[in-house]
Amino acid sequence: MKKLASYPYIIWSAIFIVIPLILVFLYGITIPSETSIFGLKLSLDNFQRFLEPIYIKVLWRSIWLAIVSTLICVIIGYPFSMLLAKTNVKKRNMLLLLVIIPMWMNFLLRTYAWMTILGKKGLINNLLRDIGLPALNLLYNDGAVILGMVYNFLPFMILPIYTVLTKMDKSVLEAAEDLGANRFVVFLKIVFPLSLPGVISGITMVFMPAVSTFVISKLLGGGQFWLIGNLVEEQFLRINDWHFGSTIALILMVIILLAMGVMSKYDNKEDGGAGLW
Amino acid sequence: MVEKSIKRFYMFLIFLFLYAPIIVLIVFSFNDSRLQGSWDGFTLNWYRELFKSREIMKSLYYTISIALLSSVIATIIGTLSAIGIYNMKSYKKKILLNVNYLPVLNPDIVTGIALMTLFVFVKVRLGYVTLLLAHITFNIPYVILAVLPKLKQLPKDMTEAALDLGATPFYAFRKVMLPEISPGIITGALIAFTLSIDDFVISFFTTGSGISNLSITIYSMARRGIDPKINALSTLMFLSVLILMIIINKRTNKDFKRKDVY
């Protein structure tokens, strides 16, 4: 009986997880053709099409903006996690809850909030107008998209780093201090290397949604602002070229797999942190 | 002393960054002007309009009904399969667990277009049913991941003891196993429910005309520009999240205390 328990899910996951991905794969490596039997022809034309300058530019912009946002999240998130890990336990749980709560609010609303602050008729520009300054173009540029990404994904960076820091063996730090290391050396040689697993899972958790988003770029970047996610959406919902859309989706998956592969490889070299997982 | 105040100031700045947009949304949901920034007095007009808007009320209904149905179905299938996976042979277990991780690790947009491709391929009309199927699909993995650790904590001989003492397998499951793993099941159900309420990307691709959840409605409204009705909606949603978080937090605290006893 116990063995039968998983059968519904085996069937479910075959139909709704495995087959859809196989379909995307098949769409990605074929093009419509009137001469062949199924109306499809095996072809890598769509991959070649992706190499055209317009698409490559979009690809680089997506990767670049995701990297910048991830870096900003590390830079402002790491010190914050350290401070959070150092506060006393009672206050800490409260503060942790405060970090988590915005994450639970619908992320469209969080993105919309920035529209109302940065927009032409938004909060900042209205305040500027009131004191007689000219309005600024804050929305619909790289900066706004990066801001939206950092705002939406910062908790994903803070939480794993915080978790690793609180689980760290304090006696190791004391030992280093006893042996004469100053605070800076202790951080550089012990705390940071030991916290790398947290940083790495933070990086993956920020980079992945950042590189594949199409909502943040659409709302904060405007109609002309394209990331790879917008390309996929466009191909599937407006242009209806599912073959090219699937090709782009496959490329997106490869990018994420590569990023995760690089991250886990880097993680394994730091054998000091392996036990903390 | 200076260092301490710098640290405090830094933490304050981060919290300001996290909460300022939400506070702005809430404050201007009571503003009598369409413009953000100019305060024209207090009003509840936007709330009134919010409840009058058929578009929003309809999507609220769809959001809640999809979230309830999908989380209940996903919890049942997920719990059963967690038990199944736990008792599986190692290589089969590995395969199914890896498949289970696919929707968790894949970007939402890929899961979304993959499901859409499937539905269109088998010629199912996109709408309520496909939306529900999609939500169940991305919810099950989280339920499994919540229940599995509880199963691992369960002493293996406990169900056997119950069976030796004459309990039927179902009775043993209901009386011995279920009470032990129920915290995991409830956590899984709550995760599933909130994920379903919050989802935009997968819903966006798997729904058809006329059926849209709150996220999709907010997206289409936000694309048209600033609308104070969304502010009012944000305030209400933020309050519900706050209440839900407090409840969950109390639950997990209880859970921790229970663990301490053992």
From TrEMBL, chain A:
<feature type="transmembrane region" description="Helical">
    <location>
        <begin position="7"/>
        <end position="29"/>
    </location>
</feature>
<feature type="transmembrane region" description="Helical">
    <location>
        <begin position="214"/>
        <end position="232"/>
    </location>
</feature>
<keyword id="KW-1003">Cell membrane</keyword>
<dbReference type="Pfam" id="PF00528">
    <property type="entry name" value="BPD_transp_1"/>
</dbReference>
<protein>
    <submittedName>
        <fullName>ABC transporter permease</fullName>
    </submittedName>
</protein>
<dbReference type="InterPro" id="IPR035906">
    <property type="entry name" value="MetI-like_sf"/>
</dbReference>
<dbReference type="InterPro" id="IPR000515">
    <property type="entry name" value="MetI-like"/>
</dbReference>
<feature type="domain" description="ABC transmembrane type-1">
    <location>
        <begin position="59"/>
        <end position="263"/>
    </location>
</feature>
<dbReference type="GO" id="GO:0055085">
    <property type="term" value="P:transmembrane transport"/>
</dbReference>
<feature type="transmembrane region" description="Helical">
    <location>
        <begin position="95"/>
        <end position="115"/>
    </location>
</feature>
<comment type="similarity">
    <text>Belongs to the binding-protein-dependent transport system permease family. CysTW subfamily.</text>
</comment>
<keyword id="KW-1133">Transmembrane helix</keyword>
<feature type="transmembrane region" description="Helical">
    <location>
        <begin position="186"/>
        <end position="208"/>
    </location>
</feature>
<dbReference type="GO" id="GO:0005886">
    <property type="term" value="C:plasma membrane"/>
</dbReference>
<feature type="transmembrane region" description="Helical">
    <location>
        <begin position="144"/>
        <end position="165"/>
    </location>
</feature>
<keyword id="KW-0472">Membrane</keyword>
<feature type="transmembrane region" description="Helical">
    <location>
        <begin position="244"/>
        <end position="263"/>
    </location>
</feature>
<feature type="transmembrane region" description="Helical">
    <location>
        <begin position="63"/>
        <end position="83"/>
    </location>
</feature>
<keyword id="KW-0813">Transport</keyword>
<keyword id="KW-0812">Transmembrane</keyword>
Automatic annotation (TrEMBL), chain B:
<keyword id="KW-1133">Transmembrane helix</keyword>
<feature type="transmembrane region" description="Helical">
    <location>
        <begin position="99"/>
        <end position="122"/>
    </location>
</feature>
<comment type="similarity">
    <text>Belongs to the binding-protein-dependent transport system permease family. CysTW subfamily.</text>
</comment>
<protein>
    <submittedName>
        <fullName>ABC transporter permease</fullName>
    </submittedName>
</protein>
<keyword id="KW-1003">Cell membrane</keyword>
<dbReference type="Pfam" id="PF00528">
    <property type="entry name" value="BPD_transp_1"/>
</dbReference>
<keyword id="KW-0812">Transmembrane</keyword>
<feature type="transmembrane region" description="Helical">
    <location>
        <begin position="230"/>
        <end position="249"/>
    </location>
</feature>
<feature type="transmembrane region" description="Helical">
    <location>
        <begin position="60"/>
        <end position="87"/>
    </location>
</feature>
<feature type="transmembrane region" description="Helical">
    <location>
        <begin position="9"/>
        <end position="30"/>
    </location>
</feature>
<keyword id="KW-0472">Membrane</keyword>
<feature type="transmembrane region" description="Helical">
    <location>
        <begin position="128"/>
        <end position="148"/>
    </location>
</feature>
<dbReference type="GO" id="GO:0055085">
    <property type="term" value="P:transmembrane transport"/>
</dbReference>
<dbReference type="InterPro" id="IPR000515">
    <property type="entry name" value="MetI-like"/>
</dbReference>
<dbReference type="InterPro" id="IPR051789">
    <property type="entry name" value="Bact_Polyamine_Transport"/>
</dbReference>
<dbReference type="InterPro" id="IPR035906">
    <property type="entry name" value="MetI-like_sf"/>
</dbReference>
<dbReference type="GO" id="GO:0005886">
    <property type="term" value="C:plasma membrane"/>
</dbReference>
<keyword id="KW-0813">Transport</keyword>
<feature type="domain" description="ABC transmembrane type-1">
    <location>
        <begin position="60"/>
        <end position="248"/>
    </location>
</feature>
